[in-house]
């Protein structure tokens, strides 16, 4: 057995753990920003003086972010829609994936929201 083949499952596990830890950190930052904005809500006295037609920014629903997973320099990368530089780049080489997946990633695989992105990443890196 080749030394590199023995390490491959460990490397994949390490990369998966690092990625999922990063997602948890990003989620915590995102949730922290939401809780800060809710602390800035006006008091009951202030809301009574607001005209019915007024809408605060906290009442507007946030649209899920669209992500595109595609080939970047021969490696698997995640882009936010309409962005040219990748948000994440993995040490997963496209040419090691099945031909069907390689074709999909040349075009780009689009998903909405972080949950769908996490599932897609897990599918490709495991």
Describe the structure.
This protein is an alpha+beta fold. It has helices at 3-39, 44-48, 99-107, 114-125, and strands at residues 66-72, 75-80, 88-93, 109-112. α1 (3-39) packs antiparallel against α4 (114-125). The longest helix is centred in the first third of the chain and has 37 residues, at 3-39. It is globular.
Task: Detail the topology: elements first, then pairings.
Layout lengths: L2 H37 L4 H5 L17 E7 L2 E6 L7 E6 L5 H9 L1 E4 L1 H12 L1
Antiparallel strand pairs: 1-2, 1-4, 2-3
Radius of gyration computed on alpha carbons: 20 Å
Number of DSSP E strands: 4
Q: Unreliable segments (pLDDT under 50, ≥5 consecutive)?
A: 41-52
Q: Give the number of helices.
A: 4
Q: Calculate the mean pLDDT score and round it.
A: 73
Largest sheet: 4 strands, antiparallel
Shape: globular
Q: What's the end-to-end separation, in Å?
A: 21 Å
Characteristic key phrases:
126 residues, alpha+beta, four-stranded antiparallel sheet, 4 strands
Overview in brief:
By secondary structure, this protein is of the alpha+beta class. The protein has four helices and four strands; from the N terminus they run ααβββαβα.
